[in-house]
What we know:
The chain is mainly α.
Amino acid sequence: MTTSPGTTTGITTGITTGRRRRPATVIASVLVALIAAVGGYGAIYFTGLEGWDGIGVSFVVAYEFLSLIGLLAAIAHLRGHRLGRPAVILYATWIIYFTLYKLIAFQELQAIPFGVLAAIALACVIRPPAR
């Protein structure tokens, strides 16, 4: 099988570090970044639809802060920082619990994809290397 120049298959190599990354690391980082970005946008959009009262503003500020932490965790994990993996584990776990809360308290079925993606990211990040 031949690949054209510039394409990669399998384990990726860090641009700045030259270290090889497991595909599970890349998948977990991308999923956490996706959850944080889409969730952050959704918090602003759907809270705005319901009206900007005091509790809505407080929720959005708190959620955006946590989304920023999720984005930073994804970047740190992808770059191989020693705090990246625990941060991704913490963020993915928080999203799973928040999804369960939204399902139980509000019957918000739209939260399920976020919980599923967080569970996949968590499984990728806690999975031991195959070697």
